[in-house]
Amino acid sequence: MSRPETMREPEALPVHDARVLTVGGTTAVIVLDGMAYTLRITRAGKLILTK
Fold first, then answer.
1. Label partner for 35 (CA 20 to 30 A): which of 4, 25, 27, 51?
2. What's the pTM?
3. What 3-state class would DSSP assign to 49?
4. Are strands 27-32 and 35-41 parallel, antiparallel or unpaired?
């Protein structure tokens, strides 16, 4: 017997390393539906995503 849709096991989410996205730097541009967003790694090691 199969489980109802709400009871399914969650699928693994894709994992992306911010250091790889920024090619070892601190900034990368991410595009979604033609809009560019800037991903920045702060000196404190936090992530900021801005439009």
1. 25
2. 0.73
3. strand
4. antiparallel
